[in-house]
Request: fold
Amino acid sequence: MRFPTGFLALTLLVSLALVTGPAVGPAGAGEGPTPAFAFPSENIAIEVWWHEYGPFTAYVKELIEAYKKVRPNVTVNPTVASSTDMNQKLTVSLAAGTGPDVMDADASYYVAYYSKGVLEPANLDVFGVKSYEELMARYVPGGLASGTFDGKVYTLPYQGNSMSLFLNNKLFAEAGLDPKRDAPKSWKDLMALCPKLKKVEGRRTVRKAFEFPYHSPRWQLQDLQPMTEQFGGKILSEDGKTAYLNSPETVTALTLWRDVTKACGDPKNTKNTASNPNQDFLDGFTAMWVTGPWATPQVQASPIKNEFTVVGFPQVDPAKPHTMVYGWAWGVNKNKPEKNKIVAWDFVRFMLAKPEEWLAKAGFVQPVKGVGDTEVAKKFPFFEVHMKDVATASWYIRSENVNEIAQAVGRAVDSVVYDGADPKAALDAAQAAVEKILKK
Amino acid sequence: MSVLASTQPRPTRKRLRLDISAKQALFGYAILLPTLAIIVIFRFLPMLQAFYISLHEYDLIRPPRFIGLENFIDLLQDPLFLNSARVSILYVVFSCVPVWVLSLALAVLFNREIRAKNLFRSAAFMPVVMPAVVNAVVWTFMYHQDGVVNTILGWFSIDPIPWLRSSRWALWAIILIGIWRATPYYMVIFLAGLQAIPHEYYEAAQIDGASPWRQFRHITLPLLKPTTLLVMVMSVIVAMKVFAVPLIMTGGGPADSTRVLPLFIYQTAFEFFKMGRAAAMSVFLFAAVMVFTLLQIRLFSRGED
Reply:
């Protein structure tokens, strides 16, 4: 039986359209069906490591099962580690040459992996693009900034978290406030609310109006960085070689931090820990708290349920908003066989293909274009607020010494808040410590 | 061919003849060998490796770069390291001295004929069997504003103390846990020492009219000297290495007030990835423990002869 040439051509065109045509939904990094490239045909096993977070782990396991159906010759071996241990596990294993094919790390750590030469740049063929610019174009402006080095994209984020202000509606109502109408836009607004929201009985604080984080230096930097940038300063130069910890802007930001704390919080009294960073807010002990969209399922599962409001990160000047974005990203190990690296990038592409599922199942916002137009995003509480904060954000500082810089900042904040040290003196000490580190 | 070959007379070999004691010694060494190998491979080689790494700049991934004594010189000028060493010394002094006194007092108490002695002994030993991580978590709750400790203080009209969130109090909070955890362990060691003292000495002293204090001062304490030395050396070494409790409860804060040396070594190695610097700190710690131990042994052996 012979088919007419026209029919064959039509069939070919339809098939081509199915393979390369636009998929329904946002343009994720691995959006659309599998692009055409030479995928290994033999059996291959890859190791994938990620950090533990219940909903995230469940979703990645689901993706692994789905990938097996698409690529039956690939075995994906998963390893899950706590977020605090992941960086050291990765570094030690990469040093021993036994690291994973696909790694998951805090975006701010990748600069260290890049400089140590263990990262493989994104495979353009796998993503069906001709250039890194084309890949970047799928993301919101700056969405891939944390994983781009010397013009090449090395890591792809699966979460880019805004820092937004969560309000407890019930506590606002108890204080005679309306979380919509009275929501603070500026630090000044926020401080004005504190006398109404903070409750002290004798010398015991029974409710805090607002609190900064004190459970982790990295979190402290997450707040001090955008505050410094709101005053027109910065923590670190673009090349990561110069610190500005004792600049007038950083000193002003830390002074504001101290004043807000005095008026609104009680840092000596908290149940927040590295593994439960939102605990005081979830317990109704803090009325206002800055955190990321990933906290939404936790808040909904707490006694607060849906009685919360999210507004933008407080500003020095609401007319010129500035906040910070931090996140986690996938990377591929350069020291693996070529075929493994192709499979690894293909698996990353497959995982990131549906940003709306990441939002629905893990609460993570991929900084790709079009996420906000999906039904899931429209149903996600205060999604537009989170995206607005992402749009005015710069990424968490990138440096090989990010942990030491965060420690120095945390030490300065602690000594100002707990010991009453002068912000300038505390930041001078932090600057001296960081300068010494960066000089090496 | 093979049959023929097998029927050939074997060349006579000189057999090594060992007498019975040599055979026993050989057997003894053979038994010791696996343990010895494990100790050498997993204890002494890493220690030697640490000495080697301390002379290098090493971030785990890039090859180590020899820098001589630079790490050691740097550390002596580093305020963070010096502060950490100070915190460790404070921890050792203020946790060990009370532990020696309390554990000896408890041992003397439990060595007497008291009702339900075994029950009390077992109850007192409970903190030792509890894992350090559980200890840390339980005490974190106990130290909270509304926790047990502040509630008890409240009965005496004392305002809540921010135990873990104040650079003034945090180290004392950690020290208190160290004392609570170590006392029963050393009590058992003292108890074993007390039970080894012949009862006849006390009977003779009683006949001579010695008061209980004089008996303690002139019989118990001198005969407990070897046990006391063991307790002092062990407790100082253990206190120098305290790590899990400050890591879990305070992470070294606030403002570095609880950043003991082992915690700083861990952070330098596995958070900052400066293995050479961390190894140099470990060498300092090793030297400090060694000097302190030798000093204690020397003090205790003075006048032995």
Q: What stands out?
A: DSSP finds 14 helices and two strands in chain B. Chain B has two domains: 2-54, 77-304.
